[in-house]
Amino acid sequence: MGVSGIEDAQIPYVEADLEYPVLTGLFIYVTRLLSGVFPGDRMIAFFGTTAVALFLCFLGLILVHLRMPASEVGPVGGVRGWTGVRALDDREGADAWVRDPRWQAVMLAASPLVAAGALINWDLLPMLLASGAILAWARGRPGWSGALIGLGTAAKLYPALLLLPIALICLRDRRWRDGVATLAGAILGWLAVNLPVFLAAPDGWLHFWTFNTERTADLGSIWYVLEGLGVQFPSLTLLMAVGLILGAVGLAIAYLKAPAVPTLAQGALLIVLLFCLVNKVYSPQYMLWLLPLVVLARPVWVDWLVFTAGELVYWAAVWVYLDGGLLAGDGEPRAYWAAILVRMGTEIFVAARVVRDIVGARVEGRRWRE
C-alpha cells in the first residue's frame, strides 16, 4: 500500500502501477476506499478492512465446498456408485464418509495453511472463484463455470488452468456444447473486467504482464535453487512453457486413456501443481491455491498431513531466510534450498497419488483403456 500509491487512493492502473491482475487491483482499491471511513492510522485501517474482506472470501469458499457434490471428489475409497469406479485405496481406510462435503469443508477450514497464509496476499479471492467454477461445472452449469474461471483469471492467472481439464473432459465425452459454453463464459468474464481498464489505461494494464514476463528466477522456485548452484538459463519463460506443454500432454493422455473420466478437481490439481513446480517464483501463499484442490482430488488425511507439513516447512523457511537466516558458513542458503526441495517433494507425492487414482481406477474390471 505504501509503495504503490494506493495509500493516497490513487486509481490502480490509471494513476498507480500494480503487479496484480485487474480484479485483484479493484479489490485492493475498494478496500482502500472503505478503510478511509475509519479514523487513525491508514495502514492499520487498510489491513483490518482487507482482513475482513478476505475472511468473507474464505467464508464463501467454505460454503462453496459444503455444496460441492460428491461426484467432484476424487475416487480414493469405496465405490463411486454413479460410475462404478473403485479406486486403489480401499485398503488404506479411505472410507466413503470422506467424500461427505462437510468433511471436505472441515479439511479446508481446519488447515493451518489458512492461518499461515491467508493474509499474505489477496489470493482468497481467486480461490473462491476457482472453487465456484468447479461447483458450477459439477452442477451442470458450464457457462457459469466459464464465467467464474474468467473472473478468477482476472484476479490471478492460475484459474485459467482449469480450462485444460474441462477441455479434456469435453473431448472425451464429446460434450462440445458444454466446452463452447465454458470457453465463451471464460472469455466474456475475463473481458468484462479487463477490457474497460485496457481501454482506459493500456500501459497500466500491461504492467502486470511485462512484470511477470521479465521476472527472473525468484524465491521458492527450483530455478532459484539451480541458479544458486551456478546453473544459468537463457530463457526461463521458454522453459516454463515447455514444462507446461509436456505436462498438458501427459494430462491429456491420462484423461483420454483412463477407464473412467477423471474429475475436474483431479486434473485441476495436477496442472496447477505443475505450474507451481515450474514457475519462476513460489510465494508462500501459493499453498492456498492447492489446498482446496487437494481436499477435492485427494481427500485422505495422510495426504492432507503430508502436503500440509511440506508447505509449512517452506513457509517457515522463507521467512527465516528473508530475515537473514539459514545461511551456511560460506554464505550459501543450503537449508533454504533444502526447504524448497522438501516442499516440492511433498507436492510431487500428492500428485503421484492422484495419478495413481486416475490410472488405477477400475470400470467393470478394466484398469487402463486399451
Automatic annotation (TrEMBL):
<feature type="transmembrane region" description="Helical">
    <location>
        <begin position="180"/>
        <end position="201"/>
    </location>
</feature>
<feature type="transmembrane region" description="Helical">
    <location>
        <begin position="105"/>
        <end position="138"/>
    </location>
</feature>
<feature type="transmembrane region" description="Helical">
    <location>
        <begin position="144"/>
        <end position="168"/>
    </location>
</feature>
<protein>
    <submittedName>
        <fullName>DUF2029 domain-containing protein</fullName>
    </submittedName>
</protein>
<keyword id="KW-0812">Transmembrane</keyword>
<keyword id="KW-1003">Cell membrane</keyword>
<feature type="transmembrane region" description="Helical">
    <location>
        <begin position="233"/>
        <end position="256"/>
    </location>
</feature>
<dbReference type="GO" id="GO:0005886">
    <property type="term" value="C:plasma membrane"/>
</dbReference>
<keyword id="KW-0472">Membrane</keyword>
<keyword id="KW-0808">Transferase</keyword>
<comment type="similarity">
    <text>Belongs to the glycosyltransferase 87 family.</text>
</comment>
<dbReference type="Pfam" id="PF09594">
    <property type="entry name" value="GT87"/>
</dbReference>
<keyword id="KW-1133">Transmembrane helix</keyword>
<feature type="transmembrane region" description="Helical">
    <location>
        <begin position="263"/>
        <end position="282"/>
    </location>
</feature>
<dbReference type="GO" id="GO:0016758">
    <property type="term" value="F:hexosyltransferase activity"/>
</dbReference>
<dbReference type="InterPro" id="IPR018584">
    <property type="entry name" value="GT87"/>
</dbReference>
<feature type="transmembrane region" description="Helical">
    <location>
        <begin position="43"/>
        <end position="64"/>
    </location>
</feature>
